[in-house]
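Predict structure. Chain length: 156.
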Amino acid sequence: MTEQHHWQKKAAERQKFYKQQLQKVNKKKVLPQLPDLHEQAFKTIDCLNCAACCKNYSPRFKTTDIKRISKHLKMRESDFIATYLLLDADGDYVAKAAPCPFLGADNACSIYDQRPSDCARFPYTDEDVLIKRTNITLKNSTFCPAVFHVLERIQW
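Prediction complete.
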């Protein structure tokens, strides 16, 4: 069993536990732990070895993201939207297809310095989104090793 498969299997097995902990979380106890746990996770996890987020999911492209990225690509905003995005069921702009059109063969982002704010903040392991948005955290823990790493090490 590969190391990746091992943690993913364990994350799947622990979904009920994570959900229970997140629903009754003591924010004053957990929030201060997140920056250090986030830093520890990224000392051992290299996103360029994984890129599961970019390969399988899309961030929201907010208006400010669309303006910034289309300017960077020297495209009109309407052309950028027509080329790369669609509106999802929640009314958010997301990438038309997976993997992300800006993901390179080397797992690097071709618009990294201009990337959507959701991408810059992902996987939210150093902010309150981790405990506020339980469903997102649970989903993220199944494909992002950093989320799994943090959830496993929180002192609940």
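Summary: Strands lie at 85-87, 93-95.
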